Amino acid sequence: MEKLVSLCKRRGFMFQSSEIYGGINGFWDYGPLGVELKRNIKDAWWKDMVTGHDDIGQLPGAPSPYEMTGLDCTIIMHPQVWKCSGHYDLFHDYMVDCRESKKRYRHDQIQGRWVEAKGKKIFATAGSDSESPEADIERQALKFFGMRSKNADELKWDGALVSLTTVEDFDQVLGPDAKTLGTLTPPREFNLMFKTTIGALGGEADAAFLRPETAQGIFVNFKNVVDSSRVRVPFGIAQVGKSFRNEITPRNFTFRSREFEQMEIEFFCHPDSSPEWYKYWRDRRYQWYLEMGLDEKKLILREHHAEELAHYSTGTADIEYAFPFLPEGEYGELEGIAHRGDFDLRSHMEGKLDPATNPMTVELNEEGKPKHRGSGKDLSYRDDLSGERFIPHVIEPSAGADRATLAFLCEAYTEDEQPDDKGKMQTRVVMKLHPRIAPIKAAIFPLVKKDGMPEMAQDIYRTLKKSWNVFYDEKGAVGRRYRRQDEAGTPFCITVDGDSLKDQTVTIRHRDTLDQWRVKADDLTDELRKLIG
Ligand code: ATP
């Protein structure tokens, strides 16, 4: 992972935001190569899910043909949206602060063990960033009791590793980075939505939030889309855009950031066929990551157990990837696919529903009135063929563009041994990105900077540039030019040499296999189109 992080910075895939001022935790910038990579991923997703989708044919595994359309809505929305969606009430974590170390932790992520020595019993802890909590806790306990590690067997452990949430009295708790007992504050609520104010006065009545997900913009526009386009259920609305969450512990590079991009679909279908549609989307989305180059051995589809599901949902699955920063056997979420029933549309219609009720009713306040009032707009759908009116059920495939980018980067990073210009074996770093998402599709080199080779190579460059992001390089030994493109993930290098001027052919070199073959310069666009796909 360290090698990848350093390559990302060195080659301009990613930088820490505001780095010259020391950076800002949880925010990342994409450099010249990174911006192309991430854009290609979003474009591939949009093309495969929306614009390239066949609205009239029936795809394998789909219960019927369906339509797809898109939307782009604002980041700041009416505050009532977040009240009815449930984010306002529920989107929080409990935090504890340490008065001694001044650090803040998520309450449920502190782990610890009860341990006794020298007639005193304490709860020694480790934070969520600890890779080996048991060892760290032992070290912490030894230090606290002033004991040496050779006397570790004098520590009397009481029970296994448990969360801090099991401990009621914090007086005996030794915080993960503290030297004295009882420095942790009681857990406090911490809303993950970024708050802002609208207008000049800036009172509480003008408070608004940066969206923590793109999905709600789709729900509140459901009626607009149905009324303005000719879509019929089943159909999906897709949106790609920024989301913001004031994450407590942003970490693992871009995996958990405070500003990130989502690629979400809300798929509206008849309640009776929604379980089939759920299965379709779950499998389709898993397959997409494989097609884009993730290794099947590192990608899992994790179905949530029945007891983890809301009662109105018939299924939720996470697509998870074995990121290299995670311990062996652990996976991180790339995308969640959820069957959401009619929870969202009804909440925006009638008022926030209480998910604990079955059948669901609107959550009431102490006065018996809706806690969060809905829009009062009719968000039901009338099927003009059958005449039936119903509230569609929703399947939500919700992916993160930054997590996908990170997964593709992790998957692509490869080191192999290749001969250099003098035939000596050298370690080569190569980013084996799928050609569709590679930032640069091809690099064009004149073998040497004379004899008309640069002119011919520049002509080729200008022709190809009309179709793709290609790169021209005439500086240095050709072997070094290849290596630089390997690190950037460029799948094809095109070289103009002495023969090119005679027979108008050029060499194409394949990044992964290192195969080289000659093609007519005039056929390059067609040849690359076939290769890139
Ligand atoms: P997690 O459990 O990892 O916090 P989540 O279940 O809260 O994720 P969702 O609300 O389902 O995530 O969001 C859908 C997708 O958005 C996730 O699968 C992920 O790809 C992306 N995502 C969510 N939070 C972040 C974040 N803080 N940084 C980057 N991507 C994120």
Automatic annotation (TrEMBL):
Residues 193-435 form the Aminoacyl-transfer RNA synthetases class-II family profile domain. GO terms for molecular function: ATP binding; bis(5'-nucleosyl)-tetraphosphatase (asymmetrical) activity; glycine-tRNA ligase activity. It is found in: Cytoplasm. ATP binds at residues 245-247, 255-260, 333-334, 400-403. It catalyses: tRNA(Gly) + glycine + ATP = glycyl-tRNA(Gly) + AMP + diphosphate. Its EC number is 6.1.1.14. Pfam families: HGTP_anticodon (PF03129), tRNA-synt_2b (PF00587). It comes from the Bacteria. Keywords: Aminoacyl-tRNA synthetase, ATP-binding, Cytoplasm, Ligase, Nucleotide-binding, Protein biosynthesis. The keyword Nucleotide-binding applies. Substrate binds at residues 106, 213, 260-264, 396-400. Its main location: cytoplasm. GO terms for biological process: diadenosine tetraphosphate biosynthetic process; glycyl-tRNA aminoacylation. One of its GO terms (cellular component) is extracellular exosome. Homodimer. Catalyzes the attachment of glycine to tRNA(Gly). Belongs to the class-II aminoacyl-tRNA synthetase family. This is Glycine--tRNA ligase. The gene is glyQS.
